[in-house]
Amino acid sequence: MSRTPGILASWRRAPSLCVQKGSQSARHTCHPEVLLGNCLPVYGANPLTVIRPWAEGLDQVVIHVGALSLKESQELAQHAAEIGADGIAVIAPFFLKPWTKDILINFLKEVAAAAPALPFYYYHIPALTGVKIRAEELLDGIQDKIPTFQGLKFSDTDLLDFGQCVDQNRQQQFAFLFGVDEQLLSALVMGATGAVGSTYNYLGRKTNQMLEAFERKDLSLALNYQFCIQRFINFVVKLGFGVSQTKAIMTLVSGIPMGPPRLPLQKASREFTDSAEAKLKSLDFLSFTDLKDGSLEASS
Ligand SMILES: CC(=O)N[C@@H]([C@@H](O)[C@H](O)[C@H](O)CO)[C@@H](O)CC(=O)C(=O)O
Known about the structure:
Helices cover about 40% and strands about 10% of the residues. By secondary structure, it is of the alpha/beta class. It has one domain (about 5-220): TIM Barrel. Helix 11 crosses helix 12 (about 270-280). Bound molecules: the ligand CC(=O)N[C@@H]([C@@H](O)[C@H](O)[C@H](O)CO)[C@@H](O)CC(=O)C(=O)O. The ligand CC(=O)N[C@@H]([C@@H](O)[C@H](O)[C@H](O)CO)[C@@H](O)CC(=O)C(=O)O binds near residues 7, 180, 181 and 197. Ligand SI3 binds near residues 127, 128 and 233. Homotetramer. This is N-acetylneuraminate lyase.
């Protein structure tokens, strides 16, 4: 795999809230419950062909089929159905933006209709799309318009909006999947039923420990794990953290070459990777022998 596979992420529905079990390396994400192919189509690379090899052997695969053009999004949705995906997810189109809830719903409805048998997830990520329609508003009556609507991936720090999504839809059995890894514990308290995020590809074990502590109602321990995760994320954010840096860390931890990012992204610097590696080790995310001997078993 020389090109980016997007970001692999996983979740499991409530009551067990989880990212990849048993390991924190990308290589060991071969058995997550769900793989989300989070990539927009780019010229010459159909995300579905990239996702297919990753999807083999997984229990569930939800494929992101959002695109700037409705037609392209519909074609991707149809292809996702043809290759046996378990669901589709869609972000808001972000070049020509929908400016009201109804317009956004109409766009999503047309995409969902192209794969009428597949559960449909709205992927709310306003920082990247610039579409700031509140998720809580969007969810109001959404199943009347999109009968396959199954849930939401919520990648925003607005916990008021997130909490109200949960609170106003308690009867609906929706999946509420949180996407801000450094705030997951807060979202769990609000009622998140799962998590999808980039750092679970390499901070999975610590995150699972946090989830287990939360399920045991040991909030103090869960908070310790969340703080530890925050220490790492805070550290890399200060260095400049994005998709390229995620690829670099995933390569470092898994040993799987993720390849260079495409322009306009720039490859992560050697200094970044060295600093991230040192930080992972100092916070006990990796043991000192993990990377040297090729063993991917991370320390607890
Ligand atoms: C803005 C962003 O990239 N958010 C990430 C988080 O996992 C994020 O990397 C993490 O919380 C660290 O800030 C995910 O929610 C989104 C994501 O992984 C994706 O769409 O590929």
